[in-house]
Amino acid sequence: MAIQAQKVGGSFWSRLTPRSRLGWWAAGLAAAVVLLQALAYLAIFVGLETSDFAPAVVIPIGLAIIAGAAALIVGVLSIITRRERSILVFLSALVGFAYFALWAITFVSGLTGSGPSGPIPSPPPPPG
Question: What CA–CA distances, in Å, run from 106 to 13, 27, 35, 75, 115?
């Protein structure tokens, strides 16, 4: 009788993909963050933004912020409650945290009136 070796970690695919519904939601929301941000960059590249509040840029970025926060929350819930240990869920939580943290830093620096290297200088006076 031959002794068979037991697989310790499973295949790479089983470690990559989520096993729970919350894990799949987290992965989908992180993918939505990436796609919405790419859509906003595409709108800027094509020249659809005409002012600071152009809907072609603001709407995808706003939806990406919401999806980033949701990916963070759902990913952490999936890790804690469902004991999800897949690579995509950890990456989803990381993407959600990074996107939400960068947005929060930008928001707070806008409220305080300072940039990354100090106060924002006032524009020069108009000529004449």
Answer: 37, 25, 20, 23, 9
Question: 31-58 pLDDT, tens per residue?
Answer: 999 999 999 988 888 877 666 667 888 8
Q: How far apart are CA 85 and CA 23, in angstroms?
A: 9
Pairwise CA distance, residues 86 & 97, whole Å: 17
Output the CA angle 40-42-43, nearest 5 degrees.
Answer: 65
**Mean pLDDT for the stretch of residues 87-98:** 93
State how far the Cα of 30 lies from the Cα of 9, in Å rounded to an integer. Answer: 25
Q: Where are the alpha helices (DSSP H) in the chain?
A: 12-16, 21-46, 55-81, 87-112
Q: How far apart are CA 99 and CA 25, in angstroms?
A: 17
pLDDT over threshold 90, residue 11: no
Q: How far is CA 88 from CA 9, 11, 49, 101, in A?
A: 16, 15, 33, 19
118-119 and 114-115 beta bridge pairing = antiparallel
Cα distances (Å, whole numbers) of residue 101 to 65, 104, 107, 110: 10, 5, 10, 14
